[in-house]
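Entry 14. Ran structure prediction on the chain below.
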Amino acid sequence: MSLLKPFSKLPDLNTANILLVENEEQFQQNLADTLVEETAVTVNVRLAKSLPLPMENDESRPRIDLVVFIINLTSDKSFESAKASLKYLDPGYFLGKVCFVATNARHASVRTGCLDALRQLAVLLHCPLLFAEDQSPEGATSSARRLLTILKVASGLVPNTTALYLSSLTRCTMPPDIDQPSFD
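Output, structure tokens:
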């Protein structure tokens, strides 16, 4: 099993490739169906439960422009699976080609520790963290619209804008803790 590398293959013309990684596959298929409906560019969606991807179809696999980790905040297994999958990504992906999508943030059983851990991971990796409503079709449409914006930039389809530039604008940040001393 090898690392998934962002620049090991040439891109296809007017095509964007996205990899949706979700351990439980609850929101993944709805989001994939909504992404494919895009008509301005060709969007190819690949689905995976976790990384690494199998080696047997490595030659036929297109270049992956954006990797999206979908994390269900009511499941510890979902977060741990995404965290374990990160080691199979080449560091080049963390230059604007990785995104986290959190689902079930409004659910009563979400522990604040899980949400804080996800936010800290997104801050550490300088990646955007999006929140999605997975219980309604409108939630999938809204999430797909936001991901398409990031995907078009990450795949080079937006002139004069790079994924690294967009990542610097959309990355997750954490406010400084009140407990930590200030140097002002």
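Strands lie at 15-21, 42-48, 66-72, 98-103, 129-132. Will compare against last week's run tomorrow.
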